[in-house]
Amino acid sequence: MQRIKQIVLGLVGLIALIVVVGFFLPSEFAIARSTVINAPPERIFAQLDDPRAWKHWTVWNQRDPQMQLSYSGPARGLNAGWQWRSASEGNGEMVFTAIDPNRQLDYTLSFPDMGMRSSGVLRLEASGSGTRLTWTNAGDMGMNPINRYFGLFMDQLVGPDFEAGLANLKRRVEQG
Length: 176
Fold this sequence. Notes:
The chain is 39% helix and 34% strand. By secondary structure, it is of the alpha+beta class. Helix 1 (2-24) crosses helix 5 (145-152). The termini are far apart.
């Protein structure tokens, strides 16, 4: 009985330590990836400001072909948005919040089931004979200590998806 009590107290202490340390972890995260696409910015931007085009180059749709998509707002541009429901990729919503045609698109991304929200930017800049596209996303994990642990690994978890999406977009735009 004494041994069980020690094990239980040890587990409670370990859990308490994990929670307390979580409060001291950074709450913010940021992800950024870039690629150079051999095309003018207007050809690239046509794939960015249309939510229906994202399913052709982002990896999340490819991982779950059964993902349910719906769209809101205008067909493209400011306030255009899309929502998805997926057993494997989660449920979420993206809305375009600022547009500078052929230069920059800003968006908000939310995952209501996880209580998470972030902001992203897709920025296009001249680069030699092509266009550099930089995709960034940043957010705040809030006060939840468990979410803060998750935030430590956001770049490793989501960064490869950004890289694959940018590679798909590059192929799609360059092949016309």
